[in-house]
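Good morning N.,

You mentioned wanting to compare the apo and holo forms, so I went ahead and generated the holo version with zinc ion. This is what I fed in:
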Amino acid sequence: MAEVVEEVRCSNCGAALTFKPGEIIVTCGYCGFTVVVTTHKAFVLEHSMIVNKRDELEVEKDLRAWMGSGFLKPKDLAKRAKIVEKELQYLPIWIVPISASTRYKGIFERITPPIVKEGGIDKSYNWLVLGRKVSKFPTREYQVPIEGKIPFDFRQIDKNAKVLNSELSEGEVIAEAKQEVDAHHKFLVSQDVDRLIEFKTDCSLGNAIYVHAPIWFMVYEYNKNHYYVILDGATGQVIKGDIPPAGFGPF
Ligand SMILES: [Zn+2]
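and this is what came out, ligand included:
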């Protein structure tokens, strides 16, 4: 039996929507309209974007400035590294406002005799969840420059940039945010008690925001090896970068 390939058209401008299997929330490449392809309904949450502020030359400068700073890098890194790849991607990032209240009880075993401790953690977060299932992007090390967000406008997307769609639905994103906050609080509690007897986290959620953020994925070559760098296109800051071993190079 032949497989039926469903054609999905943008309900705003009528253009064919292109997306990959697994992508759920798709933004039209022609008009910027965003649709939930599984239900064919318009996306109703806030869809924002952060504008990219760097061009290819500027990110190269940013990267070389980073290479020349700090103590851990080889001294000649900024001079000798060759930048071999620069790609701007707009990543689909969800921001979930979440207030989490944890109550716990556990045994503190670092003294003799051990004692029972009880406590609570009450914290509010704007928790980030990346809308992609497989990615090396370090959400915990990234702060969305949220002051700069504007309503999503496809005309502000750089011509050569890739806009990635979300593979997660709003429900999946919320479940993931709750689970990660719970795990984070469990980690915080583990500093205070060694063995948990009771642990419960209640979460209250605000409206999630869907943001496309400009991220540069770069590769440089140094001593014949390749290293990866992820850079924030709004601020020019390196979010995460591989550093070659300093080794026995010239000092
Ligand atoms: Zn459209």
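The mean pLDDT is 92.

Happy to go through it together on a call whenever suits you.

Best,
F.
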